[in-house]
Amino acid sequence: MRIILYTGKGGVGKTTLSAATAFKAARKGLRTLVISTDPAHSLSDAFDLPLGPEPTPVSENLWGQEVNVLKDIRQYWGELQTSLSALLVTRGFDHVVADELAVMPGMEEVAALLHVDQKAESGDYDLIILDCAPTGETVRLISMPDVIDWYLAHLFQVSIQGAGVLQPVIKTALSLPVQLVSKSLETLFAGVARVQKRLLDPAQTSIRVVMTPEKMVYKEALRSLTYFSLFGYNVDAVLVNRVVQEADVAETSGFLASLKQLQQPYLQQIAQSFAPLPILNLPLRAGEVVGLESLREVGEQAFAQHVPEAVLFSGNLQHIEKTATGYCLRRRFPAFEIEKFDLRKKGDELILTIGNVRHSLMLPHTLAQLEPAGARFSKGELQIDFV
User: Which residue in 66, 65, 140, 73 sits closest to 103, CA to CA?
Assistant: First the structure.
């Protein structure tokens, strides 16, 4: 089972490449579902046929779906909110306060993740491709398991990090009879833990960043790669769309020649900054990409030298080395801005802040007893010394 998330700045071609990848994989015989989690929903426009909130046949071995977020929230959260409110009242909260606290953070994102997990668990598909919302929303999407874990840990002293998150743990943590804990709450714990494990498994899940060779897009892609690495997700490729070819310049007027000249420094920066990730360049097309035939052409161009459903890159994200004075925690970051970085240790937690995104790492016992003594970025790694 494979899951591939396509993300990037708005308008760079995420939907087109999601659909093209799905169509190419389906033509190889893989049962493929491509899902749009972007509220704008342009996947049906790419296929040139209507898609609904449930998988819709597109071609042989290919289904498309545009998630109905409101429907999913009702499905996953309706009974759950009632259950949470009741639990909070038993812990001494006022009814009004309990109702407010029962509206857990990121309902839309968690509902989307649980929906994807449900499709993956069904066994109906070999490959699921997510056409994600623009970068910022995708960061929110993949960070939601961490947010939910924080919420549960601080409100109920329950964590989804371990596997035992169902009835025994809930009963112990809440000191309440099991009958007071609804099945919907147990399902949330299990579902979020399962989807987090699935997303963090590089053999199952990959993120692919789509961009164009422009300054703003390039900068956003760099930041997104840092954030994905921060949360431990595997980015296995960068797709650079709308690259002007030499043949285009030779056959046209000065506009494309100027555009090609403008793109060159960014293509060089992309090659340097995103190494060793595979970089797949796609040419600027004369017409729009609508319908299966044009999607087939894009898929052939994008994956002329790669297998679309394969894990195109994977590496050891984090390791610990013994040093003369203590230990060094090394965590791979293909792109990193050290001036926007901060860290602090709280118990056995290491809290990393990069830009406006924060993530907590649970330290092994060896490091939890020590203190961070400095950090640096070198050769694609964040290196943190502990003494």
Answer: 73
